[in-house]
Design brief:
Elements lengths: L4 E3 L2 E4 L4 E6 L9 E7 L6 E6 L6 E3 L7 E6 L4 E6 L8 E8 L15 E2 L3 E6 L1
Parallel strand pairs: 2-11
Antiparallel strand pairs: 1-3, 3-8, 4-5, 4-9, 5-6, 7-8, 9-10, 9-11
């Protein structure tokens, strides 16, 4: 397992943008597939996006396709989630996660991941 730390959340108006970051202090994420999930109050944790260890493959939930972009830089030991055209329904706590299945990107289930961050709040006002 690897300890993950998210940052970059905040309050933004609808139509705005935010970029979330995920890093692993003292450890490398280079061999892991990385994913982003979100959880709104009273709802289950929902898959957002995933990326292979190399960055060569990505996978998105239909609800964010075309608006969100997942990326990574293993030299910087960081993964990002660029969120554009934000909607009030994007409001949630966002979590990054690491999967030992480094070559996979079709990883939509929380059970696919062994390590999680503490989450960062994203609030989109209408």
């Amino acid at each position: 397992q690897v300890q993950l730390v998210e940052s970059g959340g905040g309050l933004v108006q609808a139509g705005g943008s935010l970029t979330l970051s995920c890093t692993a202090p003292g450890r490398t994420i280079g061999s892991y597939a990385m994913g982003w999930f979100r959880q709104a109050p009273g709802k289950e944790r929902e898959f957002v996006a995933a990326i292979t260890w190399s960055g060569g493959g990505t996978f998105y939930a239909d609800s964010v396709k075309g608006r969100f972009t997942i990326s990574r830089d293993n030299a910087k030991n960081t993964a990002w989630l660029q969120m554009n055209s934000l909607k009030p329904e994007d409001t949630a706590v966002y979590y990054c996660a690491a999967s030992p299945r480094g070559n996979a990107y079709n990883l939509p289930a929380p059970a696919d991941y062994g390590s999680w961050g503490q989450g960062t709040q994203v609030t989109v006002s209408s």
